Amino acid sequence: MKKSAIALAIGLLLTGSFAFAEPVHNPQAVEHTRQAITHGEAGHAPILLEHAQTALTHALASQKAEPSVHTEEAISHLNAAIESGKNNNAAEGTVHAKKALEHLQLAGKPAEPAKALGHVDQAEEHIKQAITHGEAGHAGILLEHAQTALTHALAAEKESPNVHVQEGINHINAAIEAGKNNNAESGVVHAKKALEHLEMTKSKK
After folding, report:
1. 0.70 exceeded by the pTM?
2. In this structure, is residue 151 part of a structural domain?
3. Are 133 and 97 part of one and the same domain?
4. Residue 156 in 3-state DSSP?
5. Which of 7, 8, 93, 144 keeps 20 to 30 A from 174, CA to CA?
6. Nearest to 150 by CA among 129, 131, 170
7. Is 82:49 a contact under the CB 8 Å cutoff?
8. Residues 27 and 89 in one domain
9. Is the distance from CB of 66 to CB of 121 less than 8 angstroms?
10. CB-based contact 146:127 (threshold 8 Å)
11. Domain, as residue range, for 160
């Protein structure tokens, strides 16, 4: 009896510790992102890079434990900060680290009751991010967001066929091709066209 009671107690402790550990990743990501900003502002690109990489590890763990659109955006900006750090560009890395921090802080806030974003809204959000990163010359990150936007646009088209969604899909596909060809400029042009059509979809409702 004693052995089984001890085993049960250990099991409960372990379960509780794992449940308690999950929320720790967001604060750790926040802290390392702040350090990345501090060192980036001081022009220390290599140290910015170190902290951004550590922050990314925690952000990924946080996203796995508790998925959030804000954590997802933070991950994109941390990846961009890491690329900037590798290119010894502390100023640009700091810009992305600050954006990542904003999203991490939003992700860490208690969830508020709100209506779930529809597929068109989510497609719009990812297209906007594709444009932002494309304008910064990050074709690879533009590609990631365009691909996610396409998934949502296709789901929206399946739910409620619409000529503007169809046009949006065409331009998103073109943006994806541009991203694959490392052509951020062309990707931005098509992403902006896609956004126009997606916004028209909502205005027609």
Report:
1. no
2. yes
3. no
4. helix
5. 93
6. 170
7. yes
8. yes
9. no
10. yes
11. 119-203
Give 53-89 pLDDT, tens digit per residue. Answer: 999 999 999 888 888 889 999 999 999 999 999 999 9
Q: What is the DSSP letter of 183?
A: -
DSSP 8-state code for residue 115: P
Residue 127 region, left (φ>0) first, then alpha (ψ -120 to 50), else beta?
A: alpha
The residue out of 74, 108, 142 marking a domain boundary is 108
Among candidates 182, 181, 179, 157, which has minimal Cα distance to 168?
157
169 and 143, same structural domain?
yes
Given a contact cutoff of 8 angstroms between Cβ atoms, the answer to whether 153 and 107 are in contact is: no
Hey, what amino acid is at 41? E
Q: Are residues 25 and 67 in the same domain?
A: yes
Q: Which residue has the tokens 């046009």?
A: 167
Q: Based on the structure, what is the number of domains in the chain?
A: 2
Q: What percent of the chain has pLDDT over 70?
A: 83
Q: Which residue has the higher pLDDT, 23 or 102?
A: 102
Domain with residue 71: its CATH number is 1.20.120.660
Residues 23 and 99 placed together within one structural domain of the fold:
yes
Q: Name the 3-class secondary structure at 90.
A: helix
Quick one: 8 and 97 in the same domain? yes
Q: What is the pLDDT of residues 92-146, one digit of tens each?
A: 999 999 999 999 998 887 654 444 568 999 999 999 999 998 998 999 999 999 9
- φ/ψ of 117, rounded to 5, equals -70, 135
Residue bearing tokens 């900006």: 77
